[in-house]
Amino acid sequence: MSTKPKLTFNSARAAAGYKKAVQNAADQLLKDLYEEISQRLNTSEGKKDLQKMTENEEMIFRRKVIGCADAIMDSYGTGSEMDKTNPFYNAYRHSSLWNVSRRGTVAIVGRHKGFYIDIYGRKRYSTGRRETENIEDYYEPISPSYAFQRAETWFTKGNGSKVNEVLSRYLAEYIKGMHQYFDYR
Amino acid sequence: MPITPFSDRLAVIDIIAGDPYIKSLGFDRDKIYNTSYTNEKLEKDTRQIFVYNTNSENGDIDIYISPVIEIDISVPVGQASKACLAAEQIIALLSGREINGHTACELIAPSPVNLPCQFGYECIGLRFRYNATIFNTVKTV
Questions:
Q1: Residues A132 and A151 grouped into a single domain
Q2: C or N terminus of chain A, fewer CB within 10 Å?
């Protein structure tokens, strides 16, 4: 005696497919964001200083573009050219990395005598001979390229942002292939 | 038409710089640059436009790539309305317009968008994409 075939929806496979689609979208966004920032950085040191990071948990896919010291200085500028709207500007000013001899200025000035840790985390020594003296003739300040800030704007602002566009594209492809999660037997 | 980013940017600059309304807003041709925005180029009390390529996107079909042209309009913050009016006009001038035989230019969201820039300035960014065929030919001298 033959039984009638049944149409069933395989929800476990569909959920796995959905996760894969979101993961692929996250990978694409990471690639695009990295390229966008890299293209906007003005210095080769800044470009070399960019890193990608991927973390996958059961339900959370994290993607990060990490800018180390040179990339951040390129994006936010240095010395008298520094962009003080940097959200971490206050934290920087109150950190041990800030040159306390910068009194009432953001210009690059000589440090007081003694050892200090530079922006790259290296231990350095200052003779203190030019303490508080503006030394931007020797260490030229960098104008901000706004690479991170502008990339963030294009990627996250409004409904038509890059994040929305890429997610919509990958999810539309997923929905187009939904038939593969139905079994008829 | 094959990929011709340099002449495409020049064509865009010609369209913008030749428009009487844009001129009336104070954007002179010598302040419209075929290069990306940098602070070093910001001149005090000057209205400037920067036209440059950003990363291309995949084309609608395999034989295409979609070059993306970004246009940044920079003005002193006290003249912010001029940047908005220029953005409106540039969208009208370029949307649906065919440049150098490519497919029509298409405005990309979230344009127009306010971009972070130097204190005391206002900067509005626009992005347009179009399709170019990927079959460039080898040129000879």
A1: no
A2: N
